[in-house]
User: What shape does this take?
Amino acid sequence: MNKNRRLLKLLALVVAFTALFSISFAGLASADRGERDSRRLISVVPPVGIAVGQSLHITFLNTGDNPFEIIPCVFEARGNEVKEGTPITLAPGQMGSFDVSWNELGSRLERRVQLRAVAHLNARDIKNLVVTGEVVDDETGRSTLFTPGTRQGFDPQPDPPSPN
Assistant: This one.
């Protein structure tokens, strides 16, 4: 009987220790997630296709009153990262750009690939970021496609004005 009680106490102690250990790591994971969430990954240009001899040129504009930093990235259709840029700090009213050339995509069997541009930036700066994308012919430098960037939280049909 005494042996069963000791075994039961030991089991209870192991369960309590495991629960305490799990809770402490969950707290650390949520703190780490809070730091990562401060810099969100948002889509900035809808998916576009480029072919041999073309580049995707992305332009960023800060329309706010404070400088902020973004890190541009481009993903292919399967979700694999193609290229990540260096951090770009944009002062108020300043523009920056990021290019991805067909030559940077590595050897591919297909002659055309879909790309999606994203940016890492703080959530508070999303409203001040304006983005455009264009597909450029490398040989001539001419744009073959221009696409406005996407706006986070844009409501195409705002609420009607309230009657006074």
In short: The chain has two domains: 1-37, 40-148. Confidence is low (pLDDT under 50) at residues 20-37. Strands lie at 39-51, 54-62, 68-76, 81-84, 88-90, 95-101, 112-122, 129-137, 143-148. Helices lie at 2-37.
